[in-house]
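Apologies for my clumsy wording, but are you able to produce some protein sequence, whichever is easiest, and the tokens describing how it folds?
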Amino acid sequence: PGYKNENTAWWDGSQIYGSSEAVTQALRAKLPDGKLTLDETGTVSFL
């Protein structure tokens, strides 16, 4: 079964890539490699 998501389909990877350009930029570190931003415990930050 799928899950209700008003922005994107649940299988599209938006948790990693973001559901918009603004969210994508907020999830990514401001470094040339574009890696995901980590919090102080070393885990992925979520919006």
